[in-house]
Amino acid sequence: MQNSAVAKAADTNQHEEEDLGIEVTDIALPEENSKPRVGTISHVVLHFMSNAAVKPNDPYNIEDLTNIFIEYGFSTNYMIARDGTIYRLVPENRTAFHAGPGYLAEFEFYDDILNGYSIGIELLAIGTKEEMTSMIPAKTYNTIDPAHIGYTEAQYESLNNLLDSILKRNPSILPNRDHIIGHDEYAPNRKSDPGSLFDWSKVNAFTQ
């Protein structure tokens, strides 16, 4: 059952998104998977996510992925499916638990607390075998359909639309690689996402 406060907040943000011409499907996570935001949003952190370790032949089932968030107590603000569908799991006025401990050399203030100042976007994707080693055994990885690996053009298109919307509403996020980053840049010793298969040149925010 959706928490009414989260559902109400998500519904409010839904209208803001619609005003900007962006379609978003809401999947409100339980309230304990986020907390009220108290800082100014200055960053976007990009991630990849799948359920390939458990279901290598069906790694992107939305219900499965939602249950992973709930089971492990983490979250993201947005999730972009292979077909480009944008899901909102935590409204932007709440802090999602997506980045964890880490650091940015140019932003020492954010050591281990970037969640409170960032928007998390999970793209449903699988990286290279090397990048997935800590999550997926090589034997399992070898059974994955190559079509499930890397990113789709529909995802890049939706990501650009979503980033355009986010930047308009959050002027403290500058359209550059210092403020729109990968999880691997914040937590290089723990994370590899969005990985080498993500094409940063397709992010339009840097060229506008």
TrEMBL record:
Keywords: Cell wall biogenesis/degradation, Hydrolase. One of its GO terms (molecular function) is N-acetylmuramoyl-L-alanine amidase activity. Coiled coil: none annotated. It is an enzyme of class 3 (hydrolase). One of its GO terms (biological process) is peptidoglycan turnover. PANTHER family: N-ACETYLMURAMOYL-L-ALANINE AMIDASE AMID. Transmembrane segments: none annotated. Residues 29-195 form the N-acetylmuramoyl-L-alanine amidase domain. This is N-acetylmuramoyl-L-alanine amidase. SMART domains: Ami_2 (SM00644). Gene3D superfamilies: Peptidoglycan recognition protein-like. The keyword Cytoplasm does not apply. It catalyses: Hydrolyzes the link between N-acetylmuramoyl residues and L-amino acid residues in certain cell-wall glycopeptides. Its EC number is 3.5.1.28. Pfam families: Amidase_2. Residues 1-21 are annotated as: Disordered. It comes from Bacillus mesophilus.
